[in-house]
Amino acid sequence: VPEGDRGKLLGIVNRNIEKLISYLDELQKVFMIESEEMCVCRTMLRMKSEIEGLFAEFDRAGRVRGTHVRVPDVTVFAGRGRLRDFISTAVNAFQKWTGEVPFVECVSSVHGEHGYPGDQRRFRISLIPRFMDRCVEERKNLKDFLFYYEVHLGLVLNRLAAALEGEMEISARNTINLTLPMKPGFHREKDLIHPLYMMVERAELTGTEFHLVDLKLTGVVKEENWHERLLDKYFHRCFREHGIISKGDEPASYSLFIMSRTASQVSDGLREIEKLFRRSCRSRGDEIYPTVHWTIRFTRTPGTQTASPGIHLAEEFV
């Protein structure tokens, strides 16, 4: 084989090997999603800060040419790792489809804000690619591209959307839409067992205290979700850096998994949340408002136990 042709053949082989490796990586991700080996914890996410922070990472890494993010400051219970994987995979799909580093617009909306029960409200994220090349008529439709030419990427997006308990669709205008439930029903594994195992292991590795707190609002009007949104804001103000917050097994209840704080610091933080909540309700003019009840259900202090307390506690909850 002539030297020039040999170089071309080696280039083709290298490109095919890279493509095969990427396909295997995506297939492995699909199996991990379905076997729940990826992060399956659901936690309270402030979507504006979560998505803006993710796109800032993309920008620093050179994965996007630019972004335009318009997301309302709402709270959604979802798996942080899987949400980030979904958006990252969508950006990767845009790059493969366009053949260039994309400019991505991210907009979102809330469906059912007024007159809908909380468990029927939906949060939609729309990812829209913008092109340097305006001659897009000859480009393959994004939906066809993902389901005929890059099937593995379409498969991963679908599996991630299902794992998030949401729905994915690709519009005729080449927009990837992800619709998520804002108030999903309580799921024992995602909201209690997995977060418990994860946080206990993290506390053991860092040698810090761990606390599991049950918190509940009593006296909530079913159609009114203002009080829950207010409480969500104070959770993030007081405990965002020290743990995760999941849904509780009763209406308007939460499980707080807090580490790197002493029991007295946790109690002080909870009292501060209660005080801020009460003050906001009064300043709003509410004569009757819900009350905040909380209890520290479990505490682990490093060096006081030999067996993993999380295992025993998880067995108690199953």
Characterise the protein shown here:
By secondary structure, this protein is α+β, with helices and mostly antiparallel strands. Helices cover 47% and strands 23% of the residues. The chain contains 9 helices and 11 strands. The strands form 3 sheets. A 5-stranded mixed beta sheet has the order 2-4-5-7-6.
Question: What would a concise description of this structure say?
Answer:
This protein has helices at 3-34, 47-60, 80-98, 142-149, 151-163, 188-206, 226-239, 263-283, 309-317, and strands at residues 43-46, 66-70, 75-78, 103-111, 122-130, 167-170, 176-181, 210-218, 243-247, 253-259, 291-300. The strands form three sheets. A five-stranded mixed beta sheet has the order 2-4-5-7-6. It has a four-stranded antiparallel beta sheet with strand order 9-10-8-11, with helices on both faces. The radius of gyration is 23 Å and the shape is elongated.
Give me the Rg, rounded. 23 Å
Strand order of the largest sheet: 2-4-5-7-6
What letter string, H or E per element, gives the SSE order? HEHEEHEEHHEEHEHEEHEH
Strand tally is 11
Q: Can you give the mean pLDDT?
A: 82
Q: Could you say which overall geometry the principal axes of the C-alpha atoms support?
A: elongated
Number of helices: 9
Distance between the termini: 66 Å
Q: Structural class of the secondary elements?
A: alpha+beta
User: Low-confidence segments, ≥5 residues, pLDDT <50?
Assistant: 306-311
How much of the sequence lies in strands comes to: 15-25%
Helix content: 40-55%
| Main sheet overview | 5 strands, mixed
